[in-house]
Amino acid sequence: MEGQQANEEDKFILSLPRERGWGIPDLYLFQEFWCPSILIKEVNLFQKDFEAKDSDIIVASFPKSGTTWLKALTFAIVNRQCFSSFENHPLLSSNPHELVPAVEFIYRGDVQFPTIEPRLFGTHTPFPSLSKSIMESNCKIIYISRNPFDTFVSAMSFFGKIKLEPLSTLKMEEAFEMYCNGIIEFGPWWSHMLGFWKESIAKPNRVLFLKYEDLKEDANFQVKKIAEFLGFPFTQEEENNNVIESIVKLCSFEKMKNLEVNKSGIIYQFLEKKYFFRKAEMRDWENYFSPFMREKLSKIIEEKLDGSGLSFMI
Ligand code: A3P
C-alpha cells in the first residue's frame, strides 16, 4: 500500500511542469512555485505533518536574501539569557543553518528537529504553501527580503558552485532570462516576497517583513525591532551594557565568514558552508548588469510589485 502511494506521488510529480534548476536538478511547478525536485515530497510532509507550537519562530526567506544572517541574529537574540558570554557562544562553533535548521531539510532527514525552546526553524517555502498548523498557530514569522538585483547576482554565484545539477553551469544570459520569468529555486521571487509582505500588513503581530538593505544600514535598530517583535525586548540594562552591539558584532559578515566552522564542511549533506558567505555588499549587481538587464529587471519589478506598497532601493 505504501509502495503504491509512493508510486502515485511520483506519477503526480512527473506530471507537473518542469524546468532545469539553477543548482539542483529539476524544478517542478508545484503549488504555484518552482520547487526543487529533491524537496517536493518534503514540502508535502511539512504541510501535512508539522505541528507548530505557539512559541515557534520561523525565519522565512527567498534564497540568497540574507537567510544565514537573519538566522544568526534570531538565534543570538532569543537565546541571549542562556549564552550571555559572547566568547563562548554556539554561533562560534556552529553554522547558523545548523542552529536554525530548514524545515524542508528536516523532513529530508538531513537534520534534526530543534530540541530547545523556542524552536527556531528556517524555510524557503512560500507563504501560501506553509504548513496548515503554522497558519493556525500563533507562532511568529520573520521574513527577510533583498533587492532582486543583488539577489540575482548572489544566486548566480551560489547555484553555480553547487554540483548537483548535472548540466553545465547556467550562463549569465540564460539565468537572467529564467529569473525574469520567475524560474529559480522557490521562485517566482516576486510572489514569494508578496505573499509574506501582504501577510505582514494584514497581521503585523504575526509576520515581520525585513529588508537586507535596512539591516545593512542600521543593524542595531533592526535587531531591537526584531527582539521586540519576537517578544524578547532588550532591557535598559542590556542596552546600557551594549548587548545589541555585541549581537550585531557576533553575527557580522566579517566575523562569521572567518570562523573555522564556516570555512569548511557541509550542511544538509551537500551544501558547502563557505558558499553562504561571499561578499555581502549592496549594489554588487552594478558589476554584472548591462544597461539592457538593468532596464528589463527594473520594469519587471515595477510591474510585479505595482500597487503593493513594497519597493526596493537599487
Ligand atoms: P552575497 O552573495 O551578495 O555576498 P542566504 O543566507 O539567504 O543564502 O544569502 C546569502 C547572502 O547573504 C550572500 O550575499 C552572503 O554573502 C550574505 N551574508 C551571509 N552572511 C552574512 C552576514 N552575517 N551579514 C551580511 N550578509 C551576509
TrEMBL record:
Record's keyword terms, sorted = Transferase
EC number(s) per entry: 2.8.2.-
The record's SUPFAM superfamilies line, in alphabetical order, gives:
P-loop containing nucleoside triphosphate hydrolases
Any GO MF annotation of the entry: sulfotransferase activity
Enzyme class, top EC level, equals: transferase
Q: Name one Pfam family in it.
A: Sulfotransfer_1
Look up keyword Isomerase and say if it applies: no
Q: Which residues form the Sulfotransferase domain?
A: 54-309
Entry's family note:
Belongs to the sulfotransferase 1 family.
Q: What is this protein called?
A: Sulfotransferase
- Species of origin: Phaseolus vulgaris
